[in-house]
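Entry for the shared binder. Reason: the reviewer on the internal report wants the predicted structure included alongside the sequence.
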Amino acid sequence: MQRVLVVEDSKVVQQVLRHLSSHYLDVVVDFAWSLEQCKGFIEQSNYTLALVDLTLPDAMDGEVAKYTLAKNIPTVVLTSKIDEYIRQQMLELGVIDYVIKDNRDSYHYAVKLVAQLLRNDGCKALVADDSAVSRALMKGMLEKQLFSVSDAYDGEQALQMLKEDPEIKLLLTDYAMPTMDGFELVKAVRNFRGRDDLAIIGLSGAGKHGLSARFIKYGANDFLTKPFMNEEFHCRVMQTMEQLSLIADIKESAYRDHLTGLNNRRYFYQYAQRLLKNKNQTNVLALLDIDFFKNINDSFGHEAGDHALKQVAGFLKSKFNDSAIARIGGEEFAVVLNNTSIDEAESLLNTFREQLTQFELTIAEQPYCLTVSIGCTSLHNVSLTSAMRSADKALYQAKQQQRNCVVTAI
């Protein structure tokens, strides 16, 4: 479980950081006022990351950063001033980054930086460079940013690693490499990994004009000229990953039902279309509709109806956690049972239906039980339109018969 420690002695600044943390950080955040209190927190809990003021009343010379780093806690420093001596001091200490406290925007940046670092935690990165020294340097810098880092000595090895591991989200590639240079690597990678799925930063030595433009034209997200400053490397990587995260958030929003947290109709249709391309896999599509749902809205109000939908969605996820589940409209849900025969699916759905009748929801602070009607059909060697029509027809028959039953389309 991720946890963040913030050490700041100013009441005003801490109040701002508390407010921003509640908005951007979905993790436990502890706030300390001093080095002594910081030590107390660290003795009691394990921290993923620390955001600390460089100067505290009981630690005037950066002792708090030295302490958190000595405890192997990746650390971002807040400082009210910066000069070359302080900069070198922090780089030698091994802090991830430093943020200059000069206005509210700097605190906003600091908290967003922490949020991105938490997203980096365990995220896979790959460094491709024929220089062992360069690979080791960049690997260390990325690990400081909480990435899980692999490296490759040329483009061909990097390409193979990317094909074998779709979880790699960041590639740093040098231009001049044997067997396959950086341009060829980027072009090859973009044939199967898009800009919204894999971030690429191109690298090359100074004095080679036009390389940055060519890298970006071939599909890189950004470019760095060697040798680079620590801060420049850090900022470019963080900004690139933040863009990737924003795209992921937008896609998540586009495919997620905001009320229940389930996938929505758009995601379901795209998922089912991809599934139908696999002719060797037998799947079953089920449409579920809550019986007499209008009575809940009429008796308790629409807010109670929304609460009921959330509870049914949670129950669905607990029973079909290996299946694709979506809310496709109103009180109707869709479930795709993978590698399942129609007879197996009918048995599983009947078990779910019976369990739901025993499940007590809480509506308007009162216990409430409900039922569902289910229509199911084979999702194999058919069009999605045809499968949806068959399942919908079976669902209509279930509603017409007695409700609280499963009807299978023939």
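Summary line for the report: The CA atoms of residues 179 and 382 lie 46 Å apart.
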